[in-house]
């Protein structure tokens, strides 16, 4: 004789099925949203793709009057500001995370952690205002000093505004710091104590332990944190718009006004009326989307290689 | 089964009620229209919101205006989701073709764009069209350039680099300014042209009037263009410009209104930059309300058309008294006459709207 499933068992099973279905729907929705984004961007940019084709990617003229559009200056601006910011902020992020995880006492670490999350939650327009009124004048002075140092008359004479690529890089570096720092810190905090104690027991110094035990252990999460931070830097719009100078020409130095994909779209979309102009702006969004995907895939590939070694 | 029967009865009842309700509303609306909607330019937004507020308390008709930008307003009117659009630039032939039907340009006020700058001691500067174009072309790069000092005898100009500041976002202000430069400088016209966004040969971009003003106020040696209203409110210095008849004119409500006091085409679809008027400030322009000439489209009622016509007529009559208090120049009488003629040419089903 087989025991009949009780009433509560049956209810349990029904609940299980319902939950599975609900999770599946949520997961499918996420995937569908991303796919639909891509499809929509692809469809709505058809006017510009038809008019310019692939050369849109490497043409550097952006002229709404003659309706000749090319995305290269914005692609360069996006990549230079994003990776530049990452380059500057990563050592600081690692330093902050290691200090808070291994050197600072609770009394110091807690308030600092709180400040980091506060910084991470600040609206970007506040960073933008600070950038425009505090950072930009400093960079302007640096520009003149640097121009005299290398003997460039052009720098001293023309670029005393301070707005440009460099201002955007420094501002973005500060903006993404809380993200990478707090994510790396979270990872460092879950390194098993046995591993650390084991290393110390073997006679390793604190720095040896960090270098040979903790950092290798958190490598994966660190790369993850940096990719997230980079993603934020690439997509940041408001703050960048306020300090980058919004030049639509190919920048030739770090002090030149430039533009990023996100900032160009935000600036020009509202008043764009002709189909080709709108299509070109949407194609910029498509390019930004694809760049984000490529960077994520690359990060995964790098991670997998690292693990195999 | 029984339960389903009851459920379907409820659903059917609800459906019927909805149908009756939805069938009723246009009929109810055909006697009195209590609401109109528009969208477009941000430049006249303060003026329009004051006008519509006054209009609502005078007549009980509410007007919802969304200042989403001229481009957005043109799109909304093309999609026929609003009663009127508003724009700082007249429709291009391409845009007008996309509308599918004739559109009227009704001016409501005159805006002026001024050249604001940041120099020690705030000297009163005089400029003309050629020099301004050369500065924005990046050809005149120092404040003590002979081209500038020739126009400003007695003013000591520093040996300082000129930093050009322009708008980074598409805007009617840019359209007015570049139209002026294209009108006065052949080399600007061929190298850059006119439009809401252009390919700037020199300088840095700020977003919005406040972005440009912020950049000017913190950069020594900078020059940029902003709306007169904005410059007056934030008390920034601005230059006098030599107009088409050779007089240096300080931008003001009176001098920008004077730019429209010349002979105008009947459709008022014209940039009044570089106006021949003797006291005219040369970088002045209309801002327009856009409506379809034929009002019977996508199920609009005669009452809606009448309400719109009444509103537009009011804006050109009583509404004009609001302009100057908010630093927008009034339309001169000759322009009002032509604008009223345009409003009266609106039709419903081919006949004049009573």
Automatic annotation (TrEMBL), chain A:
CDD domains (alphabetical): TM_PBP2
Keyword presence, Cell membrane: yes
InterPro entries assigned to the protein according to its UniProt record, in alphabetical order: MetI-like, MetI-like_sf, Phosphate_PstC, Phosphate_Transport_Permease
Its membrane topology: Multi-pass membrane protein
Cellular compartments per GO CC: plasma membrane
Domain ABC transmembrane type-1: 75-299
Signal peptide limits: none
Family the entry assigns: Belongs to the binding-protein-dependent transport system permease family. CysTW subfamily.
Protein name: Phosphate transport system permease protein
Organism for this UniProt entry: Candidatus Cryosericum hinesii
From TrEMBL, chain B:
Record key words, sorted: Phosphate transport, Transport
Record carries keyword Kinase: no
UniProt entry tagged with the keyword Transport: yes
Gene3D superfamilies per the UniProt record, alphabetical: Periplasmic binding protein-like II (3.40.190.10)
Gene Ontology MF terms in the entry: phosphate ion binding
Domain PBP, chain residue ranges per copy: 26-318
One Pfam family here: PBP_like_2
CDD domains in the cross-refs: PBP2_PstS (cd13565)
PROSITE patterns per UniProt: PROKAR_LIPOPROTEIN (PS51257)
Gene Ontology CC annotation, any one: ATP-binding cassette (ABC) transporter complex
A Gene Ontology BP annotation from the UniProt entry: phosphate ion transmembrane transport
InterPro entries named among the record's database cross-references: ABC_phos-bd_PstS, PBP_domain, Phosphate-bind_PstS
Family per record: Belongs to the PstS family.
Quaternary context: The complex is composed of two ATP-binding proteins (PstB), two transmembrane proteins (PstC and PstA) and a solute-binding protein (PstS).
NCBIfam families: 3a0107s03 (TIGR00975)
Function, in words: Part of the ABC transporter complex PstSACB involved in phosphate import.
Protein name: Phosphate-binding protein
């Amino acid at each position: 004789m087989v025991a009949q499933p009780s009433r509560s068992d049956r209810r349990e099973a029904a609940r299980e099925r319902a939950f599975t279905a609900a999770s599946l729907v949520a997961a499918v929705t996420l995937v569908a949203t991303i796919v639909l984004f891509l499809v929509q961007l692809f469809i709505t940019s058809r006017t510009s793709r038809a008019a310019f084709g692939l050369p849109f990617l490497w043409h550097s003229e952006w002229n709404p009057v003659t309706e000749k559009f090319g995305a290269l200056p914005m692609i360069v601006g996006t990549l230079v500001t994003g990776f530049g910011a990452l380059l500057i902020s990563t050592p600081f992020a690692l330093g902050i995370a290691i200090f808070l995880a291994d050197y600072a006492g609770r009394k110091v670490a807690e308030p600092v952690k709180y400040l980091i999350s506060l910084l991470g939650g600040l609206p970007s327009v506040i960073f933008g205002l600070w950038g425009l009124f505090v950072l930009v004048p400093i960079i302007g002075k640096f520009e003149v000093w640097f121009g005299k140092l290398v003997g460039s008359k052009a720098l001293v004479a023309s670029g005393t505004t301070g707005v440009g690529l460099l201002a955007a890089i420094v501002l973005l570096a500060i903006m993404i710091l809380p993200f990478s720092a707090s994510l790396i810190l979270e990872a460092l905090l879950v390194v098993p104590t046995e591993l650390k104690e084991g290393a110390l027991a073997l006679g390793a110094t604190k720095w040896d332990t960090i270098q040979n035990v903790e950092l290798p252990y958190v490598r994966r999460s660190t790369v993850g944190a940096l990719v997230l931070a980079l993603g934020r830097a690439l997509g940041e719009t408001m703050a960048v718009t306020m300090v980058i100078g919004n030049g639509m020409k190919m920048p030739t130095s770090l002090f030149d006004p430039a533009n990023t994909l996100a900032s160009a779209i935000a600036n020009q979309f509202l008043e764009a009326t002709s189909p080709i102009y709108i299509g070109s702006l949407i194609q910029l969004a498509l390019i930004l989307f694809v760049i984000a995907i490529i960077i994520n895939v690359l990060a995964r590939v790098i991670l997998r290689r690292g693990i195999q070694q | 089964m029984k339960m389903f029967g009851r459920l379907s009865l409820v659903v059917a009842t609800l459906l019927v009620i909805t149908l009756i309700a939805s069938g009723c509303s246009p009929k109810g609306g055909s006697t009195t229209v209590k609401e109109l909607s528009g969208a477009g330019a941000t430049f006249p937004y303060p003026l329009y919101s004051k006008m519509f507020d006054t209009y609502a308390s005078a007549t009980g008709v509410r007007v919802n205006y969304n200042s989403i930008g001229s481009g957005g307003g043109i799109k909304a009117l093309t999609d026929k989701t609003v009663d009127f659009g508003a724009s700082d630039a007249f429709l291009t032939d391409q845009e007008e073709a996309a509308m599918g039907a004739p559109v009227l340009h009704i001016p409501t006020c005159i805006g002026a764009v001024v050249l604001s700058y940041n120099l020690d001691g705030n000297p009163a500067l005089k400029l003309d069209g050629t020099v301004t174009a050369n500065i924005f072309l990046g050809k005149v790069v120092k404040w003590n350039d002979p081209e500038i000092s020739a126009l400003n005898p007695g003013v000591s100009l520093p040996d300082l680099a000129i930093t050009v500041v322009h708008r980074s976002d598409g805007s009617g202000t840019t359209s007015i300014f570049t139209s002026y430069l294209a009108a006065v400088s052949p080399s600007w016209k061929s190298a850059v042209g006119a439009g809401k966004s252009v390919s700037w040969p020199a300088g840095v971009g700020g977003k919005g009037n406040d972005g440009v003003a912020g950049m000017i106020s913190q950069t020594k040696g900078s020059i940029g263009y902003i709306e007169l209203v904005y410059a007056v409110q934030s008390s920034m210095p601005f230059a006098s410009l030599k107009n088409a008849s050779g007089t240096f004119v300080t931008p003001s409500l009176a001098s920008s209104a004077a730019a429209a006091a010349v002979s105008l085409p009947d459709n008022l679809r014209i940039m009044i930059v570089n106006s021949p008027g003797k006291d005219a400030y040369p970088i002045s322009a209309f801002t327009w309300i856009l409506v379809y000439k034929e009002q019977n489209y996508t199920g609009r009622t005669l009452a809606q058309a009448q309400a719109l016509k009444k509103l537009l007529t009011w804006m050109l009559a009583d509404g004009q008294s609001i302009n100057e208090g908010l630093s927008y120049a009034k339309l001169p009488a000759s322009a009002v006459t032509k604008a009223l003629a345009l409003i009266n040419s609106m039709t419903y089903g081919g006949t004049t709207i009573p």
